[in-house]
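cron nightly-structures :: item 1 of 1
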Amino acid sequence: MTSMSLSLDAVAATEEAAESWTMDEEEFREFYARTARPLHGYLSHLSGNATLADDLLQESYYRFLRAKLPAMNEDQRKSYLFKIAGNLMRDHLRGAKHRDLPASDAFLAAVPDGENAGERARTRVDFQGVFRQLKPRYREILWLAYVEGSSHEEIAEVVGLKAQTIRPLLFRAREKLVGLLRKKGLAPARALELRR
């Protein structure tokens, strides 16, 4: 009976430790240094509002630190943080009924380097208008895949879908984006290289 109670006590202690895992101050500083810039970029490009991105960034870290998390590796922590931020953004968009999310310069890599600055600026404005025509979910997964470089599993975790649904969803998002770009005359051959 004693060995059984010791085993149960060990399991309970392990579960309690896992539930109450927290970062110490130095761990948090390092984690923040590695994740704040990409998270801010994600939020500011999706919201189109640097002030809102600052607020959501702060709220994301606050909720991350307050969550009772099991021990996680660095990638899992980052995915969880982006999931929090994505949920906050979706909540904000639902509340504000705001759908005007600008595109990132990262998607503009398909613009030929030989174009002059004025042409690149016009293309950027045109592209942003096209990008805003996509569904918010399409914009979000395109951002995570091609700007953040997230895997299908990481994207699924952030947006709350199953990993096997991400590939077809990304395919549809790319096809929709390329179709819209073609209508505007903005789909250079390299735009189709957004394959994953």
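cron nightly-structures :: done
Residues 1-18, 97-106, 108-112 have pLDDT under 50 and may be disordered.
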